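Bug #77: duplicate submission created two jobs. Keeping one. Sequence:
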Amino acid sequence: MRFGFNHGRGERGQDCGGRHGGPRGGGWGRGGFGGWGMHEGREGGRGGGRGRRMFDGGELRLVLLKLIEEQPRHGYDLIREIEERSGGAYAPSPGVIYPTLTMLDDMGLVEAKAEGARKAFAITEAGTAELVAKAAEVEALFQRLAELGEHHARTSGGPIRRAMGNLRAVLQERLGGSEVDPDTLHAVADILDEAARKIERL
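Kept job's structure:
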């Protein structure tokens, strides 16, 4: 497949994204990674398929318990941490996280500690014992998250967005001054044109 390039006018609106500003497009339906759907998280809210949940209730309890063992966390901290560990591919919704935290509290596996207007959850001795008893299952759940993140990185165009972000930053830094001599402008244009031609030939 060949793509045409307009060398007279740059394309605007490329989203280079960040940790939370990256692509959050369609979710994972049954045809996605491992058949796991994202519909209970924010991914599913943006066109995701109605596939299986990433974690069932018991699995999510173990994931949250392990993250809380690492350090006391608020509900939204847990959402962000899961999103980070999945490479931005999956983030459970507050409507899933908070009832699960309440259940963990009721089970005596965590305890809530008020910090201003928010609650931070810390693990209890019973919670630590639960993680020890189910260590193999916990390891497998976090491996699933890591694999989802690796798959997302390979298929979401992340390296391209990173490279485009670097290019934009360099161009702004090098050419954003009050005056740039014509020779420099032509040299940069030649480099960009050559890159476009190489990509076109792939």
